[in-house]
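Entry:
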Amino acid sequence: MSYKDGGNLVFSSPQDKEDYREYKFGVPSTAPVATAAYLNSSSTPANILSYTTLGGVNYESYKTYCIKIIMLADNPARTPLLADVRAIALQA
């Protein structure tokens, strides 16, 4: 997924534990690798989530999805925190 807010990622203050930031990510319009999901602008209706398997089978739409969040920190004494996680999946 690509970062949608533009610019560099902004980090919250390490001193203020209530300084949470919101990030927006989206699905790319072209597949970055052969089996990655992308918004297919040539589908009917347009912008359907599509992906191709290693066997060459093309799928449009989905039944389930998952989101993996990997929390990273430069300092092991300051672990990242999540206050709220929201994910919206829309498909026609």
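The chain has a mean pLDDT of 78.
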